[in-house]
């Protein structure tokens, strides 16, 4: 039976899956600044080309962050079947975030212990990348004359917006619906969940303006920090309570993200931070500038114009109360919410494979933060896209990040049976 052959091929590749995941973790593709992107693409090409995949290296020339020192390299591998048909594409980002503090294991060691592989990017999302490769190789070995094509991509910069990766490729037509029909992004959202999409996001910088003066005579100046304090007070007492009243029908996880949220990413005012090693005292000056970065996450039921309007209204309210108040708002980044319909072909097929492999109904969820589905949807105009992959989302970006081998094996089985249903 075809299904049994595919599952047997997966089982036989357990050690290979472990080794592949360890090798990927051991390539420290840190973003920022964008290290070792070409190295990981070369590694994957060396693996996939001998298996019959046609490999293309795609550099995102001109994308944010791309430079001769840190070029934004992406890999696309395509394996044609023996008959015409549709294309199933597995997209994983190869970049990882900074290591941070608190590790008890080597962040790039790929250590295997008690059925878990540890390392930065193990969960988010090199384990998912490895599982998709094993799934594709097992399916092709069991069903070499499949219809259509299987694609695997390893793309740059998802952790910083995806503009040097999926966004660039979508702009170049790699995710157009006439070329690719089904996309699975193996983000770590649990092996029994299908992620249909994500909330929206608006990042902005708010600057308050003042006038510099001697710190002993602050009445001759105008403190931008005090102005920002008034903004923050309004946010605390007016905006945050308003956001708690906005709820969504989207199945966002965790439950706390089923309402609108806003985070203040940073605040900077007055003199710059002293350089490391400086032992002197600051100069006595009134701050003439203060800036905050806000990260506003909004729901599919909200309009981006209203989201921005809430901030404008708040700032104008402060201005009415403070005669010398001046401000500026600069848009940094915005993404509309995205959610694939539960009736979409890739959703139904993956749900059926989860039922076969795990013996349970798939849970449908939405991510609190954005990922590269935003570019496939908005730029590529491809709606038949989901995130499905192994791993526990809460472990992403944490010290001692890990991925479970059994979870990767089960997800590889689900992915392989999905290929069977769509390409045979």
UniProtKB/TrEMBL annotation:
Pfam families: M20_dimer, Peptidase_M20. One of its GO terms (molecular function) is metal ion binding. GO terms for biological process: lysine biosynthetic process via diaminopimelate. Pathway: Amino-acid biosynthesis; L-lysine biosynthesis via DAP pathway; LL-2,6-diaminopimelate from (S)-tetrahydrodipicolinate (succinylase route): step 3/3. Keywords: Cobalt, Hydrolase, Metal-binding, Zinc. It is an enzyme of class 3 (hydrolase). Its EC number is 3.5.1.18. Residues 197-320 form the Peptidase M20 dimerisation domain. It catalyses: N-succinyl-(2S,6S)-2,6-diaminopimelate + H2O = (2S,6S)-2,6-diaminopimelate + succinate. The keyword Zinc applies. Its cofactor is Zn(2+); Co(2+). SUPFAM superfamilies: Bacterial exopeptidase dimerisation domain, Zn-dependent exopeptidases. InterPro entries: ArgE/DapE (IPR010182), ArgE/DapE_CS (IPR001261), Bact_exopeptidase_dim_dom (IPR036264), Peptidase_M20 (IPR002933), Peptidase_M20_dimer (IPR011650), Peptidase_M20A (IPR050072). Belongs to the peptidase M20A family. This is Probable succinyl-diaminopimelate desuccinylase. It comes from Gemmobacter megaterium. The lineage of its organism: Bacteria, Pseudomonadati, Pseudomonadota, Alphaproteobacteria, Rhodobacterales.
